[in-house]
Structure formats: structure tokens, C-alpha cells
């Protein structure tokens, strides 16, 4: 029997007595046939329960969920106190046309100079083409969407024929892409593009509906039990702006992993190092953007799944406030930790896509009472000066708990630059109960995911899942109703701690991940792998945004000694997307050059700007 533990009410915790405990996850690293055997054992009726219970006990989950008296009541969905209006912003109409919001976002951006945006000599300098570069090229008749489409089709088909397989896109129809590109080309020829996003190519993660493609969640069977009749709401908004949708991007099966490993279709490789993971679960979207094929992509984020691969691939990933964008038409639309968000090669492109897709569902407007959506005005030096009033929170012991000090040192350098250049003040903070936060998130995500999968798993489809997904399912099935309620009580406590911190600071700053892109073990390609040490490092800093529904963004800030990208995460107050976008833009300006061209990069625009 465990010993009962009684928690003090959250408001009575003495923060000066809180000591940071480094995260140590106890579980074996398994790949290949040994992993296959382990999965058979944990799925066995009696021995499986014993193994799962032992792992949970080793990692203090049993103590936290079953032997702890939590004084707070449950919070089954993020609940936010009223927030002060953001400064230096414009308010946009979430009920209006997406193309009108995109036009408003465009007016917020700095002046566009096509010459300064040239790729130039790739041997000496490198930067990604932005959405405005494509729009300029199309309007100037330098290139057409149809020409770019042929280049993208060629690369996608090349990837789909590689051995071993490592596809970027797992549902693709070249004729469908050509048809969209031809329509866009015609609009430019007639001088009537719909918006700045007209003719912009984007990929959609395979757990978001994009008609006529199936949504399989990168399984081998989801399309057999769930048909796609129309676009997800977010995808429909992009299409109405003229976006060309190239197909469904690869992902970690059902979003249940942080590496992007997928034996079903092949594991997407990191464009910076082919032998390394992209991060997950939005592996395909991040790799597609990082390799230059698309300016942006849509991913989902239930446990860092937009931010982790963005960090590992050296691009920008925005996780919006829970409820800011509609989840209708996604496989993960019934949970309380997931959002749909953009991955892009720059902050301004992430902002343009965000403007198109934002808009809460009717249910969330009633339940969450979202603040009006805003966009930061980045076009005026006056609003840039407003950065000096920002107070940035840093929990040093946590900030430095990384695999290599190169990561924390690089992030620390950025904080110093922000202080020196813009006058931002860095304030030391303490975040208590990080272990409890991780446990509460795991139980919330796990139980909600399992609830949606139960009918199909009971029907035998569960045995057709990959081995690492089956490992997760075995763990998720072990959680009880009382475990789930305990996790929601912890959610309320953790929300209280963070809202108290946000009375003192505007943004909490951390590395995005605790390590750069991990190597793919060759033995993991066929059967997958389980490596909770890697998972712990990759998820270390991303959990709060999901459990509490807070907005966060990952911005690339440089590289480690191996040339692998490092990301900085900015975690904001509820509904404060504008504030984190503004600071992210400043970080990008300070750290964005020189960029390193990924080993796998495709210049599909091929534009010389004189």
C-alpha cells in the first residue's frame, strides 16, 4: 500500500521552498524484435497489467494519481480569467471572410522589398522564400503557380519512390494539385488573385480533413471506418484564400509520438540530417516547410506536436490558445489539449496563415469566452519599441535541464540580446509541481485519445496499429476514471500557478526542446521504438501550453556544433497570440541570419530578383 500524501491548497505553497527536481523517466529503450516481444507482453492479460503498473509506479504516477489528496476541484477544460487587452494590435473579425483577415495581417507587416528578399548566392547566404516573395513573383509574371506546382510534384514523387521509404506526403494526387494551380494561374493572369495566399502551396497533416484525401492519421485503416466528405473548417478557410493544398503530410501514427517514426509509410527524415528524426508528431509538415517545398503547413499540437518538429527542423511553429481555432474536421477534435496550428518558414508567414484559420467554434465561444482575436502591428517602429515593456519569465533550473548546454546557452544568448537591444526585462520565476503537470497531461491526453479509439480497438483495429502506438494504448487503457478526475484537479492547480506567474511576467521563455534532433536507430524503421528518455527531453518544456491551453511559439535561433537547429519557445497568457508573435518576430530579426541551408532543400520558386 502507498502512503497517503496531502497537498496544500495551491495558494498556500511557499515558492521559496520549491526545489527543482530533474526529470528522470524510468523505462527501457527498445527497438526491433525485442520491442515487438515487449508489446506482446504488455498486451497479455495478466503480465501486461503488472508491467504497466510497475512502470507507472517507478515514474511516480501511482503516487500522484491514487495516493494524493488534491484540495482543488477538477477543471475538465481550460478555464481562463479575464485578460487585459493587448497593446499595439489590430482586432480582426473572426466571423468575417478569411481573406479579409489575411489582408489585415498583410497591412501589419513591415514594408516588402523584393530585392532584399532574394535568395541570392546560396553558397554564401541562405534564407527561405516567404509568402510575399511568391506573391510578388506571380504578380510580376516571373513564374506561375502551375510552374511551381510541377517542381513540387517532381520532388514529392521522388520522395515517394525512395528506399527505404521516407515520404513527406502520404496522400497525394498530382492532377488535383495541377487543377488547383491552373485555377490560381488563371486568376493571376486576369489580375484578380483572391488574397496574398493565392497560389501559396501548403501541406495538411494527415489527421486534418482535406477533401478529397482520406484522413488516416498515418494508420493503415482509419479511412476504412471514417470517411471524409468535406474540408476541415481550418482547411476550408485556407482554400477560400486561394491556397493550393498539395495533400496529406506524413506524421507519427495518431499523434502518439514525438519523433515522427512511422513504420506504416516510412519515417520522414530531418532535412538538416537525413539520419535524424524530424520530431513529431507533425513530422511531414515540418520537413516539407524546412525543405523549401511549401511556405507553410498545418499541424496539430496535443503535446508539442507543432513546436517539437518545428524546433528540430529549424522553422516556426505556432500553437494557438485552446479554442482559438476550430477543430471541426480533425481526428483529435474531441480532446481538451489539442489545437490546429501553422508551421512556416518565418514568423510573418505563420501570422498570415494564422489570420486565415483563426475563429472559434460556436461551442468554444460559449464555454471559453475568447478575447477578440488580434494581430500585432509589426510595420511601425513605435510598436517595436513596445517590446521594452515586456517582462520575460525564466525558471533557470528548468531552463538549464537540457541534454547539452549548447541549447540553454544559445537560448540564454537570445534573452541577453532582447534585454540589450529592446530593453526586455528577464525575471526569475519558479514553476512548482512540474512532475504533476506532466502526469496530468499524460492522463488527459491518453484517456481522451483512448476514448475516441475504443470502438475501433474493440473491433480488432487496435492490432493493426504500430508497436509504439500499441504501447501507448496499453498505458492509456490502464488509467481509471478516478485517475482522469485527479488529473483535472491537478490541471486546476497548475493553472493557478501559471496565472500567478503571469501577474508578474508577460511571457515565459524556455528552450523549445531539451535536445536537438535525435538519430534514427536503423532497427527502429521496421517496428518502431520506445525511448522515454528521448521523449522526456523533447517534451520537457512544451506541456503547459497543452494542459492549460496557453498560446506558444517556437522560433529557430541557431544551431549546435553538429549544425542541428535549436528553437526558443515563448509561452504567453491566454489569447495573447499577438504578444508572442511580436516577440517572436523580434527574436527572428536578432537570430535569423545567417541561416544554414538544409542538406535536403528544394528551391521550387527559382526566382532571381534583380
Task: Write up what this structure looks like.
- The protein is an alpha/beta fold.
- Helices cover 40% and strands 13% of the residues.
- The chain has 23 helices and 19 strands.
- The protein has an eleven-stranded mixed sheet with strand order 5-7-6-10-12-11-18-19-16-14-15, with helices on both faces. The chain has a two-stranded parallel ribbon with strand order 1-3.
- The longest helix has 25 residues.
- It starts with a strand and ends in a 19-residue tail after the last helix.
List the helices and strands and how they pair.
Blueprint: E1 5-6, E2 30-31, H1 32-42, H2 47-58, H3 61-66, E3 68-69, E4 89-91, H4 98-108, H5 131-139, H6 145-160, E5 169-171, H7 174-189, E6 201-205, H8 222-225, H9 233-239, E7 244-249, E8 269-270, E9 273-277, H10 283-290, E10 296-301, H11 307-313, E11 316-319, E12 339-344, H12 347-357, H13 362-368, E13 374-376, H14 381-385, E14 391-394, H15 396-399, H16 405-422, E15 425-428, H17 434-458, H18 467-478, H19 481-501, E16 507-511, H20 524-527, E17 529-530, H21 532-539, H22 543-547, E18 552-559, E19 565-572, H23 577-591
Parallel strand pairs: 1-3, 6-7, 6-10, 14-15, 14-16
Antiparallel strand pairs: 2-17, 4-13, 5-7, 8-9, 10-12, 11-12, 11-18, 16-19, 18-19
Helix pairs in contact: 1-18, 4-12, 6-7, 17-18, 17-19
